[in-house]
Structure formats: structure tokens, C-alpha cells
Amino acid sequence: MELLSSSIPHHPSTSFELSYSSISHFPIQIRQRNRDLIVPRCQRLGIVSVATDPKQADKRESTPQRLLRELEEHKRNAPRQKPPPSKRFLLKPPLDDKLLAKKFLDSPQMSLKAFPLLSSCLPSMRLNNADMRWIDEFLLEAKQALGYPLEASESYEDDNPGKHFDTLLYLTFQHPYFANCARVKARHVWSGHSRLMFLGQYVLELALAEFFLQRYPRETPGPLRERVFALIGKKNLPKWIKAASLHNLVFPVDDMFKLKRLEREAPAKSVFWALFGAIYLCFGLPEVYRVLFEVFAMDPEAEDCQPRERRNLEDVDYVSVEFDGRKLSWQDPPEVALFAHPRIFRACVPPGMHRFRGNIWDFDCNPHVMRALGYPLRMTDRIPEITEARNIELGLGLQLCFLHPSKYKYEHPRFCYERLEYLGQKVQDLVMAEKLLMKHLDAPGKWLQERHRRLLMNKFCGKYLREKYLQRFIIYADTVQDTFENNRRLRNPTTTAVQQAIHGLSYAVYGKPDVRRLMFEVFDFEQTQPDPVWRRSKQ
User: Fold this and answer.
1) Rounded distance between C-alpha atoms, residue 357 and residue 133, angstroms
2) CA atoms within 13 A on the CB side of 331
3) Model pLDDT, residue 4
4) Rounded Cα gap, residues 240 and 472, in angstroms
5) What are the pLDDT digits (tens) for 275-291?
6) Which pTM value belongs to this model?
7) Beta strand pairing status for 2-5 and 47-51?
8) Range from 54-68, 418-432, 509-523 carrying the lowest mean pLDDT
9) Radius of gyration of the chain from its Cα atoms, rounded to whole angstroms
10) How far apart are CA 440 and CA 94, in angstroms?
């Protein structure tokens, strides 16, 4: 290697001297650089050129370690490329008006005017050949296991909601957990299944709440919730699927218990909830009870369905005659009486409430509450005494709705709003679910679930009652009245409970239509719109 160097000429800088004899004895010399004469760095260092042996240079360039090192350095310094967006979220050109109108008019969701809720749960497009092949191969097995006739449901009359049972039963079993085929991933299939699943969970909760309220008329809501969870908790659902011989249609293996627990519970819950959503839409709540207690053979008296032992308050009050000394079963026929659900009313409003008839609250507060809620409703009865008796029972039920547990619960455990609150919460959930299904025809079940949760937050339910200034009529014990009225952390949950108890009473006396009237006309549950629910794109 040979290094050639040369001296760099020094360019003098201009300089001048300033001397101040009065300030310092030393001259101050300021050197000013000439910016026009900029010398390259290689000349300042004295390096002109470097020559190397060409053979050694070729050897160094062809070393594989050097090439790998350069490649790693290039990868490290290269900018990261964002993954392309999923094809599912790419924007498509909009349809013209004619194609868009044809798409909506051909949708099965727009085909039924007499059954709007059933129509909203049908698939958004007609079933294709792949769907029909599954129906021809597996649907008869499902109908036989559930105890339904094997003939096609399309042979029913047009005014029969069971005409669409085959379509809904097909959507029931199309859960997305094990299937990777395009048939299950089609939008009209997975969206229809998720909507049925969204509805079915609230149908099950309301059905079992009504059943246990009538079967155990003296129990508080705590043990009742434990009984419901023991029957339809997600850890028990694979057992019921196996008992009904539906496991071959849900799981891809013959022995479902070889799968992990989490792999069993999610598909079983999805199919179980969607199944009861389909049954409720086509046949109503009585058929829900039949499938629960006959097909799945649920036993409310089983040891694993009993609530934990707790110290209960002594209940010295009477219950209705039909509940005294016997436990009602799901096969007891419904009664025709003053109310839409007379047995539920008598299970939630104890007969001893008549001792409060004509008290101060009945004269001072009851008219204001009746006026705010639009009660009593006009009913056409053959006998005027029936209307008068219903209005009297309605007034006693409203007084129970405003009766806080601190007043009489420790002496009379059922003289408070707790059982009506438990019923009203389940009715409120189902009514809002039906409203969202009919309002958002193209929304999947997961989106509806989040929307449902945000609309029915407890802080909103109590707020709607306070906007009507009905919190003034809640009956507290004298020792805690000032505490509850001046502490919002205690007051707000109480107003929420009273509002839900009013919905439970409305359901027992006038039925579900009156609950809709209270929720969307009187209290206006949709006045507070929650934050929009965004779907996260899968990267």
C-alpha cells in the first residue's frame, strides 16, 4: 500500500490590532476568516489519495460474512411497510339506485309485515346452494332431536310464524368456531347467527326468571339468580347439548369432552342461545319451557342447582293460595284474570299489601305517580268492577315499587321492590333487544350487544326516573331517609331499582306493549345516545 501526501498551502487571514493604553498593556488581536477560501477536509488533513492492492480489494468484497453483514444492516435500516388492509374493509363502488332497491326488496328481512321482529332476524339474502345442501343433510337430525315434525316448515300457512323455522334452525348451528368453509363465513350466515344469539340470551333469562319467581314465591332475588346461573351458566351448556344429542351438529369430534373446556363452552353457548332465539320467534315462551325441561331435561331440584346456604329472614306473611304448599311446574296452564300475567303479579306483590290501602302515600303520592306514568290505561271490560279491581291492584303494586328495603324488609322480607326489580330488569333487557333488532337490520349481534349495554347502563335508568321527579315519592325508613336523599352514591342505585320495578309491574299488569310505551314514550330511553360503536379492523 502506498500513501501519497502533499503539504497544504496556508492561506493567511486578514488581521488588525486594537490597542487601548488606558485599558490594557497587551494588544488585542482579532483574526477574521476569509469565508471565500474554504479548504476541503481532505486537504486540511493532508490526504490526497489512497491506492490499494486490487487483489486484496477483490478478496474483501467477495467475503460471504461481509455480504451477510451488509444484508442485515440493510434490513435493519429499511423502513417498515404497513400491511395492506383486509379485503373485507376495502371500499367498494356504491350500487346504483336500481340495484340497491332490488337488493332491499329481495331481502327476506323485508318480506314479513305481520311479524316485524321475526322478519328482522331472517338472513339478509336468500339461502344459496351450499346452505340448502346443509339443510338437506343435517336439518332432519336437529328437528328429530328437538321433537319437531320432520316435514318442511314451508308447508305451513303464511300467517304462521313457524313457516320460517327451518331457516332460523339452520342459522342456529352455523357457529364460527370450528368451520373454515366459505359457507359459514358468508355475511348473511354469520350475521344471522349472531343476531339470533343476541336475542336468545335475554329470552332465556326472562323465561327462567318468571319460572323461578312463581316456583319460589318467598325467595329473594339472590338465590333466584344462583338457580338460573346453575342451569344456564356457560360451564353447564355442553352438558345440555350432549343430553339433547345435538353434539354431532355442534362439535367436529365424536367425543366432545376430549376438547379443552374453553373450546367446548364457546360453541355450546353460541348454539344454545341462538336456538332459543329461534324458538321464541316462531313459537313463543311456552315452547321455550318445553324444550328446556323436556328436550334438555333440566331439573330445578337437582343438587347442583341449589343456591348456597344463607341466613334468611323469617317470612311470616302469606302467599297467594295457588302457591301455598305446592311448587308450580312449567306445565301449569296460564290463567285468564285481571292482568296480562296474573300469576307473576301475585308472585311479586304479596297479598298483605292490602293493609297499605288508603294510607298517606296512597292519597298524597299515588295520583302524582299515576299521572306521570299515564296510568290507569283504558281497558274495555265487560264488568266495571273488573276495571276498578285492576286499578286498585295497580295502585298497591306502584306503592310496592317505591317501597325501599330499609322500611319493612327486616320484619316482612317481601314488602319491598326487590322481586319486581328482578323481573323488570329482565323484561327491560328483552324489550330493548327487540327494539335494536328491528331498528338495525344489517347490524351483527356483537355490535348490537355493545349498543344494548351502553343504552341500559344503570346511571341512565335512574336518570330517566329523576327527570320525571319521581324520586321524591320513594319510601325510606326514617333513620336513613336523609342519608339516601343527600348522598348520590346511595340515591342513584335506588332510583335505578325503582325504575326497573315499575317495568316489572307494567309487564305483570298490562304486558310487554306497556313496557315498550314506558321505555320509549314516557322515559324515552333513546334520548341519551351512547358513543358510536366502531368495529376494529383485523390487521
Assistant:
1) 64
2) 2
3) 42
4) 47
5) 999 999 999 999 999 99
6) 0.79
7) antiparallel
8) 54-68
9) 38
10) 20
